[in-house]
From TrEMBL:
Binding site for S-adenosyl-L-methionine: W10, L48, E69, R124
Matches recorded under Pfam families: TPMT
Catalytic activity from the UniProt record: S-adenosyl-L-methionine + a thiopurine = S-adenosyl-L-homocysteine + a thiopurine S-methylether
Organism of provenance: Pelagibaculum spongiae
Principal subcellular localisation of the protein: cytoplasm
Protein's gene: tpm
Protein name: Thiopurine S-methyltransferase
EC id: 2.1.1.67
GO cellular component labels: cytoplasm
Signal peptide positions on this chain: none
Record-linked InterPro entries: SAM-dependent_MTases_sf, Thiopur_S-MeTfrase_Se/Te_detox, Thiopurine_S-MeTrfase, TPMT
Enzyme class (EC, first level): transferase
Amino acid sequence: MEHQFWHNKWEQKQIGFHLPHSHPLLEKYWLSQTAGHKPGHATVLVPLCGKSIDLLWLRQQKFNVQGVELSAIAASDFFSEQQLTPTITTKKDFSHYSVDQLEIMVGDFFKLSETNTYSLIYDRAALIALPQKMQKNYIDKLYQITAPGSNILLITLDYDTQNDTIIGPPFSTSPQQVEQLFANNWQVKQLERADVLQQEGKFRKKGAQWVYETAWLIQRK
Ligand SMILES: C[S@@+](CC[C@H](N)C(=O)[O-])C[C@H]1O[C@@H](n2cnc3c(N)ncnc32)[C@H](O)[C@@H]1O
């Protein structure tokens, strides 16, 4: 997706993806499957984080949280809505908005230069925000920045693409696609798959017959 597409979405407040609460699948699987074995204060990276309340939930569980987000509007809205005052510093490709244990790096995720650094990643609506031709680059970038043994909690959506009135994002990403994307270098475990058509008004209105949400534990070999 062009960067301008997302900047326009934030400027025009077209952020239907934003949830006013933390994600139930994060609450269900983060400690039980993904990060429960990690010592307190491990760092979790949240790619394409928007102004997600999940950042706060993760911090409440005593993780250091680093989000990456293209839009400075998203970052400033996050901190002002949470009544937090960040310090802002700019280094190279990113502006860092930070308060205790929580930082949003404003810039392009694909410009992260770290290697073998992160051991915990939370992805809700990040992989699926990208069109198929960018998804492979996204997985390559995850591979670059994570260390062997890293865990990712990934939440994907796939839907009835017969109905071509639905144009992503989110881009329908089927279990087969997830398995193919992570086929090399990763172990893939499906944690849960459920029909969420009833909760997804946007899809229902457009005539979708089904929408599935799937939670995954992805482990880097
Ligand atoms: C579908 S939203 C999901 C936001 C968040 N994960 C959530 O659950 O609310 C995708 C977000 O990714 C951001 N984004 C898109 N491309 C990006 C990039 N290359 N680097 C960093 N952020 C990006 C957009 O601005 C948008 O806020």
